[in-house]
Amino acid sequence: MKEKLLLFLFTTLITSGALMAQSGHPVTTASITPNPVESKAFLTFEEPMTEGFNLVVKDLTGKTVLQFRPDTRGEECTAVRLDMLESLRRGIYIVQITTDSGKVKTIKFQKT
């Protein structure tokens, strides 16, 4: 029973994007627009990202389909253009944002 509750809570945290790093601070709120995505989209941050980060796009099976590190040149980042999404098949995908300090944020989007 306890294991099922923990699994439920962990799944809820991941899907709500509230998973926090050990520091206890979540990654700033982020969104993908437009969603659903046809070919190109923007990943925008409510508050500027002040550290480097990696982006990993996974399908619903957990397979990594795209992976890259935006070149922010050490400056605050408020948006990233996602030009490479047109190569994806139709379906639901997860973008995982991981900062250099280990903070994680996940966002779900649909590719049409």
Describe the structure.
- The protein has a single domain (2-111), classed as Immunoglobulin-like, CATH 2.60.40.3080.
- It contains one helix and seven strands, in the order αβββββββ.
- It is globular.
- It has one helix spanning 2-16; strands at residues 30-33, 41-49, 53-59, 64-68, 77-82, 91-99, 104-111.
- It has a four-stranded antiparallel β-sheet.
- By secondary structure, it is mainly β.
- β1 (30-33) and β2 (41-49) form a beta hairpin.
Entry summary:
The protein is mainly β and 112 residues long.
Major sheet summary line: 4 strands, antiparallel
Strand order of the largest sheet: 4-3-6-7
**Shape, principal axes of CA atoms:** globular
Look at the helices and sheets and give the structural class. mainly beta
Tell me the count of domains: 1
Q: What is the end-to-end distance? A: 39 Å
* DSSP, total strands: 7
Residue-averaged pLDDT: 80
User: Could you estimate the helical fraction of the residues in percent?
Assistant: 10-25%
CATH architecture: Sandwich
Strand content: 35-45%
The CATH topology is given as: Immunoglobulin-like
Rg computed from alpha carbons, rounded to a whole number of angstroms? 14 Å
pLDDT < 50 stretches: 1-24
* CATH class label: Mainly Beta
